[in-house]
Amino acid sequence: MKRILVVSTTGMGDSLWGTPALRSLKKSFPGVRIDLLALPAWKSLFFENPHIDRLLEYRPQWYRQLALAARLAGHRYDHTLIFHANKDFRRMLGWLRCGTLWAHQNFDWIPPDQKTSFPDKVHGIERRLVLIEKIGARRDGPDMEIYFSPEEEKQTAAFLQENGFAPREFVYVNLGASLPHKRWHADRFEVLCRKFLEETPFGVALGGGPEERDRMHSLCARLHSPRAVSVQGRSVRLNACLIGKARMMVTTDTGPMHIAFALKVPTVALFGPTDPRDSGPFEVDDRLCTIIHAQRNGVPLSMDISGQIDYFEPIEADEVWVRARALLDSSTGLQR
Questions:
Q1: Mind spelling out the 3-state secondary structure of 62-117?
Q2: CB of 245 closer than 8 Å to CB of 167
Q3: Average pLDDT of the segment spanning 193-212
Q4: Quick one: which of 234, 264, 237 has its CA closest to 249?
Q5: DSSP category for residue 267
């Protein structure tokens, strides 16, 4: 065996879920070259990763796929493992020169004998670990990983100092989500942030994507505290490095939640339209994570797939605050 191609061309969380399997592959086959396809948005999450030999950028548009196809056609892979992809990847199959191909998604363009099958509720990390076992690799644990350079650590330390923060002395509150119905209520975020500012010595870092810029700045202005700062505009990697320095994160089910899990940051994770069995923590120490799954009359709201209800209406700020205080106590001394 000389080369393995890994395909991971979807979201941030999906990308990070592949890191335990990538580590397992490299430790199982240290002399084998591992190439990884990743989207431009999340490619940087794999920088500095010692388990990847070549990182290739994947773009879904057909005319951009042509250049990548030419690069891939120049190599023969012993195995191609599709950790996660969308249907646009189908166009690439004719260009791949590989001995075997394995996937776990139920695409009709992948032959049944090249797909692993699972019950409905199996976490994405577990799916990827089962996939690598198909080619003889051994698991090396479920922990996700992100690696940072000394320069990134230096820049993050400077950012903290400029804002009067210190490592483990602030809470990262993530306001963002990819879709509006996956966002917790802005007024409840405000109540929670005030609790942290008034009843703990911690600062509050308000994070989110570009679409949350106005929400972050507005909340920061309303809090009107030198211990509250908006961190919008930082790169994916520098934002991840900052999350890694936090004492705690509060977030809905989003990509940054998985960054926190990877970096062993205690996390209060709010689930509304999504099921934590699918996309929540996987074998994370209970002392480092607490889940609040929105329910009504004992029924999880994630069972309603209409997208037409207020999924987070049952989750009040006081409940999140109580769970956050308990997690602060249980996680004391566990962070690196």
A1: HHHHHHHHHHHHCCCEEEEEEEECCHHHHHHHHHCCEEEEEECCCCCCCCHHHECC
A2: yes
A3: 94
A4: 264
A5: E
Taking the C-alpha atoms of residue 109 and residue 93, their distance in angstroms, rounded to an integer, is 9
Residue 178 clears pLDDT 80, i.e. is over it: no
Q: Indicate whether 305 pLDDT > 80.
A: no
Domains of the chain, by residue range, sit at: 3-133, 150-330
Extended beta strands in 198-253, E state: 203-207, 228-230, 248-252
Report the amino acid identity of residue 278.
Answer: D
Q: Which of these, 289, 288, 291, 290, lies nearest to 336 by C-alpha position?
A: 288
- pLDDT tens figures, 90-149: 999 988 999 999 999 999 999 999 999 887 789 999 999 999 999 999 999 999 999 999
Q: How far apart are CA 249 and CA 265, in angstroms?
A: 7
% of the chain surpassing 90 pLDDT: 82
> What pLDDT score does 336 carry?
66
Residue range 22-26: mean pLDDT, rounded: 98
Q: What b/e readout covers 234-252, taking b as 16+ CB neighbours within 10 angstroms?
A: eebbbbbbbbbbbbbbbbb
Mean pLDDT of 195-206: 96
Of 243, 272, 246, the closest CA to residue 255 belongs to: 243
Question: What is the side-by-side strand order in the sheet with 289-293?
Answer: 228-230, 203-207, 170-174, 248-252, 267-271, 289-293
User: How far is residue 38's CA from residue 54's CA, in Å, rounded to a whole number?
Assistant: 11
Q: What is the CATH number of domain 150-330?
A: 3.40.50.2000
Under CATH, what is the fold of the domain 3-133? Answer: Rossmann fold (3.40.50)
User: Which tokens is 274 given?
Assistant: 């999504």
